[in-house]
């Protein structure tokens, strides 16, 4: 592919929750008609008499097929109320439409301003931007799709006019939205805003963290990253650890939410690249040690975010691993006990604290915790006893 002189953005929300920004590069020299049309529909700066929705803003994705494509741009039927209909996916309009065409009552398909195919290339990589057509040549209007995998069966059939530069995780989030049997999403995936993009605008992301602190230049989803050799365990481990350390730097800033996003990302890399024990014992053990650190860090982050059930879940994940040092097990029991305490499950908290004490008998802080919880339990018993005694007191 060639370089492009224009970049555009889409800000995406799902069921009114902001997800993030997709930034696309356009191949203007390869597909001048398609890119001109796309730019004006993103800007919403073109009007045609008789048509009110000549913009992608407010449009929703109407077709999602996992590992294949996410599709949008039916600005005839997909820019008002979000609902499935027989018409959705059959409409569209380019900037090349005319008022006379739009007013033509005899027109069977509500696709206006169809223009010719360009750059009928090969779909050798994911995240390519292409025009959707009616199934026939030279029937492009406003519908487009983004590929989420290599799609050789599309070669020579669709105009390829751009690619995703940033926001691949947002595309993956769209890809993983629940759909019905026809590929129609069960949640509204909306183009909340769109237009021309430049670097000063940034790439907001709300369900992950794209801060490059600590040298994290890696994609959110490991299979989308091309910064290292995926078959090299040493490089894979190094990438996973850099992401983890990026999370630790954010943790030191008390940015617990984004720190957690980093740890979750690192865990995805670990799970993707950790070799089987039988294949490579040494590297398997290295990855397992990193995974145990991530479980502990995630447990602590969840606790700081007051997400106590999740804190306990990741503490238990750590405790389910084999060959974990006693000091790390103690930390997991301690954090689990603290979460039980916050949920006022005092007996469970006491049991966890006692297990922590077994793993780290010299810790004086845990002694204080145990005594404190015992006092709370005794106070509850006494309160219950007094309440019950009222039922057995003779009336005066």
TrEMBL record:
Annotated TPR repeats reside at 330-363
> EC number(s)?
5.2.1.8
Recorded GO molecular functions are:
cyclosporin A binding; peptidyl-prolyl cis-trans isomerase activity; unfolded protein binding
Q: Which domain of life is it from?
A: Eukaryota
- Known SMART domains for this protein? TPR (SM00028)
Look up the coiled coil feature and give its residue ranges: none
Tell me the Gene Ontology biological-process terms attached to this UniProt entry. Answer: protein refolding
Keywords assigned by UniProt, alphabetized: Isomerase, Repeat, Rotamase, TPR repeat
Can the keyword Cell membrane be found in this entry's annotation? no
Report the catalytic activity: [protein]-peptidylproline (omega=180) = [protein]-peptidylproline (omega=0)
> One GO term of the cellular component aspect?
cytosol
Q: Where is the PPIase cyclophilin-type domain?
A: 9-196
PANTHER family xref list: PEPTIDYL-PROLYL CIS-TRANS ISOMERASE, PEPTIDYL-PROLYL CIS-TRANS ISOMERASE D-RELATED
Would you tell me the protein name for this molecule? peptidylprolyl isomerase
Per the record, the gene is TPHA0B03970
């Amino acid at each position: 592919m060639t370089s492009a002189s224009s970049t555009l953005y889409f800000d995406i929300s799902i069921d009114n929750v902001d997800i993030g920004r997709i930034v696309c590069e356009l191949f203007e020299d390869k597909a001048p008609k398609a890119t001109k049309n796309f730019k004006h529909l993103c800007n919403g700066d073109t009007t045609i008499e008789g048509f009110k929705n000549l913009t992608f803003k407010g449009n929703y994705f109407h077709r999602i097929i996992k590992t294949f494509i996410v599709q949008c741009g039916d600005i005839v039927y997909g820019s008002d109320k979000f609902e499935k209909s027989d018409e959705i996916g059959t409409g569209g309009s380019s900037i090349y439409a005319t008022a006379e065409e739009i007013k033509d009552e005899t027109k069977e398909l509500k696709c206006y301003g169809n223009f010719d195919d360009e750059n009928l290339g090969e779909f050798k990589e994911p995240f390519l931007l292409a025009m959707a057509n009616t199934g026939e040549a030279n029937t492009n209007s406003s519908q487009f799709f983004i590929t989420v995998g290599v799609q050789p069966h599309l070669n020579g059939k669709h105009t390829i006019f751009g690619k995703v530069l940033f926001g691949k995780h947002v595309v993956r989030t769209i890809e993983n939205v629940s759909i019905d049997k026809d590929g129609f999403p069960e949640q509204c995936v909306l183009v909340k805003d769109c237009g021309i993009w430049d670097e000063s605008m940034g790439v907001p992301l709300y369900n992950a963290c794209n801060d490059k602190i600590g040298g994290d230049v890696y994609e959110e989803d490991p299979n989308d990253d091309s910064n290292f050799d995926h078959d090299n365990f040493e490089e894979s481990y190094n990438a996973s650890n850099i992401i983890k350390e990026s999370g630790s730097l954010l943790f030191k800033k008390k940015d617990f939410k984004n720190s957690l996003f980093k740890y979750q990302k690192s865990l995805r890399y670990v799970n993707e690249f950790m070799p089987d024990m039988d294949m490579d014992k040494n590297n398997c053990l290295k990855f397992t040690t990193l995974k145990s650190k991530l479980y502990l860090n995630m447990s602590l982050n969840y606790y700081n975010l007051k997400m106590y059930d999740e804190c306990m879940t990741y503490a238990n994940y750590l405790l389910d691993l084999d060959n974990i040092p006693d000091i790390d097990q103690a930390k997991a029991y301690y954090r689990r006990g603290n979460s039980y305490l916050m949920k006022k499950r005092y007996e469970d908290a006491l049991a966890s604290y006692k297990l922590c004490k077994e793993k780290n008998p010299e810790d004086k802080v845990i002694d204080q915790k145990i005594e404190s919880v015992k006092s709370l339990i005794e106070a509850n018993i006494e309160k219950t006893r007094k309440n019950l005694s009222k039922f057995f007191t003779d009336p005066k």
